[in-house]
Amino acid sequence: MTTDRPNNRTNYHSHCSFCDGKAPMEDFVEEAVRQGFAAYGISSHAPLPFPARWTLEAERMAAYLAEIDRLKAAYADRIELYAGLEIDYLNEQSNPASDYFQKLPLDYRIGSVHLIESRGKYVDIDTDAETFAENLRLHFGDDLRKLVTDYFDKLMRMVSTGGFDFVGHADKIVYNASQCQPDIAEQPWYRQKIREYFETIARHGAMVEINTKKYHAGGVFFPNRSHFRLLRELRIPVLVNSDAHLPQTIDSGRREALAALQEAGIDTVMQLTGGRWQPTKIDLAAY
Ligand SMILES: [Zn+2]
Ligand SMILES: [Zn+2]
């Protein structure tokens, strides 16, 4: 479906059965067409240098890209489709700026951090609250401040290294961290770290997604809406994504996020249109 006015129904953070998504890629595309999306981007978890159950395997990269190409052609008259990857900043060798990822024929790249190193082991911080608390005890000696600081320091290294279009779920660790320490977001050290982090993002000209994945279950966006005014103050371009793992969540929380951005004085979102990121006015009436 095409519209002759701007349409904020776009999503550039989505998974499918090539990684840990719960349905074939085409099911997501069909749902996006059904809901009148202007554009849809597929962004499986990129391969890591070791096996992980939640990522696309390197051996399947060619098949992944071929399937996106096939769908681009098959749905060309109905929707703009884009090839992306959600790439972990693992270390200096494996990150969005790596040659391997830069040479892939992608339309865009998401930079994310899911793993934090402790004594030579990578610990997943994007887990349920119980596993998070256990990992905090086992691998970080219950030092929540150190773990959260390591997370943002790693993200800042990712931002300085570059090679990606936007930061994925910018402060997601706080969702789990605040189950361990409910007032963590009010701590002066935390507020200072967040400011330093967003200032680094602004300085490097990266975009930030407003990730709505946990909005319906947990009532939060990543980054938290309490930072939207800081995003505006620093003139960081934003886009709204649902990080969908199921076709029925491709639009989840988008309207609420767009409204929250408007409330914070942000009236445009970035959308990949005609192959270029373009500021697009938030139009809730059209939505
Ligand atoms: Zn992620
Ligand atoms: Zn994701």
From TrEMBL:
Pathway(s) the chain acts in: Amino-acid biosynthesis; L-histidine biosynthesis; L-histidine from 5-phospho-alpha-D-ribose 1-diphosphate: step 8/9
Pfam family, one: PHP
EC number: 3.1.3.15
Coiled coil spans: none
Record flagged with keyword Membrane: no
Domain PHP: 12-212
InterPro entries for the chain: Histidinol_P_phosphatase_HisJ, PHP_dom, Pol/histidinol_Pase-like
Presence of the UniProt keyword Amino-acid biosynthesis in the record: yes
Keywords recorded for this protein, A-Z: Amino-acid biosynthesis, Histidine biosynthesis, Hydrolase
Reactions catalysed, as given in the entry: L-histidinol phosphate + H2O = L-histidinol + phosphate
PANTHER family in UniProt: HISTIDINOL PHOSPHATASE-RELATED (PTHR21039), HISTIDINOL-PHOSPHATASE (PTHR21039:SF0)
Family the entry assigns: Belongs to the PHP hydrolase family. HisK subfamily.
NCBIfam families xref list: hisJ_fam
Record protein name field: Histidinol-phosphatase
